[in-house]
């Protein structure tokens, strides 16, 4: 997340130990990357710190970062946490709702931020059999169930209003996306976009990729895991006006990435950090800690002059 020319990363993923056990990274750290100086800084976090998790969904609203869902040592969760990113103290608090019902426990979901609300879509998690009312909104994982608890994918939409601390399920219409997890989403103007998992011709179907707004009409897609389980390094730009994709040339074609993070920087740059360069469910040795900057638009003249002056 971009705050005052600094990227803030809260680490919610796991590493593979030499004993082949899943080991979570420290959950009380937040990392700041200064875009101007290219320097990392680690700060400690306090308060009601979330448990170590993977597959959480994070977003930023009015200087507060919210994380929802994820998977910890006990499985998927539906807890919501919040931390202020502007005060430099980084104190977590657990958000308790006052009305409505939160989504069922899930991970690998996505989120849109619009009109002061957090809107969550999809994910993978579990439900009681009695709570599965519509097979079109919850796709059971046929190999994952215990007694009356079933795991699966969903295409549900849930909305949280931080002002009233209330959950709701907004009415949707039209052609619903298929149930999915590990997809990408982005907010552009007054619309939310979802991309990933079902196969498509251009670009190839994928999961664990990122989708980033780069203008009022453009979305940038990078990386992910292909439908044949190959890490990907291709980039694409989608024009929401013409609804057409075009492949984007960049210098990182030899550096595939999945399960990474991305955000918009200055002048429509896209900064990608972390993730893995291999299929983590088979070989978990390719975690990455480098940052890549994708220039999606020509730079303003003053920025070109600044770079030229630094080179000389």
TrEMBL record:
Indicate the segments annotated as coiled coil, or none if absent. Answer: none
Family annotation (InterPro entries)? Gal_Oxase/kelch_b-propeller, Kelch-typ_b-propeller
Q: Which domain of life is it from?
A: Eukaryota
- What this protein is called in its record is Kelch domain-containing protein 1
Pfam families, sorted: Kelch_KLHDC2_KLHL20_DRC7
Keywords (alphabetical) are: Kelch repeat, Repeat
């Amino acid at each position: 997340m971009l705050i005052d020319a600094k990227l803030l990363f809260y680490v919610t993923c796991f590493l593979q130990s030499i004993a082949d056990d899943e080991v979570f990274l420290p959950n009380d750290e937040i990392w700041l990357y200064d875009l101007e100086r290219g320097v990392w800084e680690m700060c400690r976090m306090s308060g009601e710190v979330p448990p170590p998790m993977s597959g959480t969904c994070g977003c930023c609203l009015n200087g507060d970062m919210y994380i929802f869902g994820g998977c910890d040592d006990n499985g998927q969760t539906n807890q919501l946490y919040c931390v202020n990113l502007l005060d430099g103290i980084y104190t977590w608090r657990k958000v308790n709702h006052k009305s409505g019902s939160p989504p069922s426990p899930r991970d690998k979901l996505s989120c849109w931020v619009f009109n002061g609300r957090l809107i969550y879509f999809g994910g993978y998690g579990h439900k009681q059999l009695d709570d599965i009312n519509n097979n079109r909104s919850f796709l059971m994982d046929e190999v994952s169930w215990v007694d009356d608890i079933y795991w699966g994918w969903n295409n549900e939409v849930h909305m949280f209003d931080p002002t009233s601390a209330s959950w709701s399920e907004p009415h949707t219409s039209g052609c619903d996306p298929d149930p999915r997890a590990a997809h990408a989403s982005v907010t552009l103007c007054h619309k939310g976009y979802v991309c990933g998992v079902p196969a498509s011709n251009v670009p190839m179907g994928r999961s664990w990729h990122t989708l980033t707004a780069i203008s009022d009409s453009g979305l940038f897609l990078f990386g992910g895991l292909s439908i044949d389980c190959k890490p990907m390094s291709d980039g694409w730009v989608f024009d929401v006006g013409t609804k057409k994709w075009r492949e984007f040339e960049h210098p990182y074609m030899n550096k595939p990435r999945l399960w990474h993070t991305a955000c918009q920087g200055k002048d429509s740059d896209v900064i990608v950090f972390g993730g893995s360069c291999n299929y983590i469910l088979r070989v978990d040795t390719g975690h990455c800690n480098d940052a890549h900057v994708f220039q999606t638009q020509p730079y303003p003249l003053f920025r070109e002059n600044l770079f030229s002056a630094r080179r000389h």
